[in-house]
Amino acid sequence: MQILRLFYGLLVVLGFTACSNEVEEINQLLAEDLQTNVERGKNIRIFYSDSATVKVIINAPVLERYNAYNDSKDVFPKGILIEFLNEQKVVDSWLKADNAVREARTSKVTAKGNVIFYNAKNEKLETPELIWDEKERIVYTEKIVRITQAEKGDTTYGFGFRANQDFSRIEIKKKVQGKMNVTDFVSLID
Predict the structure, then answer these.
(1) d(CA 103, CA 40)
(2) 3-state DSSP call for residue 37?
(3) What pTM was computed for the model?
(4) CB of 56 closer than 8 Å to CB of 82
């Protein structure tokens, strides 16, 4: 009996000495835990459907999915191509960017860096940042934009933009008139 008590006492002492409250050790354990909540994939293709009909296809060379309790997000650090399909299941508009982040909570994708949004009519929007709202099915920005409509032979510059995701209805919040040197435009969007 005495040996048994000694054995239990030794276990309790070892248990107390094995526990640590060192901040560095706790932070390291938490950091390792957070890293395990990241999923990574290459050559990703995501299909969004509604009533069994594909509406949007997202293509990206790299996807990093951060799974957090209230703040999950998908990060596309090496570029993104979003294809929007019409009712006939044909791609009728595209969005390309150097990188993007999709917030799960808001269902919004923020594309940045050399953002180009264009459609089958050869109309093109260029801007440094564009937000796609999945729920509202719109794209918008408050940044400078350049819209080229090849069929009309027209180029429009402005600040702020809103359109439906098929790029058939567009609105420029503040138009800028006049001709602008291409290098001046590039410096504005950088």
Answers:
(1) 16
(2) coil
(3) 0.72
(4) yes
In three-state secondary structure terms, 52 is coil
In this structure, which amino acid lies at residue 88?
Q
Mind listing the domains of the chain with CATH numbers? 38-189 (2.60.450.10)
Residue 147 is inside which H or E element, if any?
strand 138-149
The two tokens of residue 51 are: 């009533």
Structure tokens at 167: 């790029």
> Distance between CA atoms of 42 and 69, rounded to whole angstroms?
24
d(Cα 60, Cα 78) in Å, to the nearest integer? 7
2 vs 5: CA distance, rounded Å: 5
Residuewise pLDDT in 10s, the chain (190 residues):
555 455 455 545 545 555 555 667 656 655 555 555 889 999 999 998 888 889 999 999 999 999 887 778 999 999 999 999 988 889 999 999 999 999 989 999 999 999 999 988 888 999 999 999 999 999 999 999 998 888 888 888 899 989 988 887 888 888 776 455 555 555 555 5
Residue written as tokens 């090496």? 78
The torsion angles phi and psi of 50, rounded to 5 degrees, stand at -140, 120
Q: Could you identify the residue written with the tokens 């008590």?
A: 5
How many Cα atoms sit within 13 Å of 143 on the Cβ side? Answer: 23
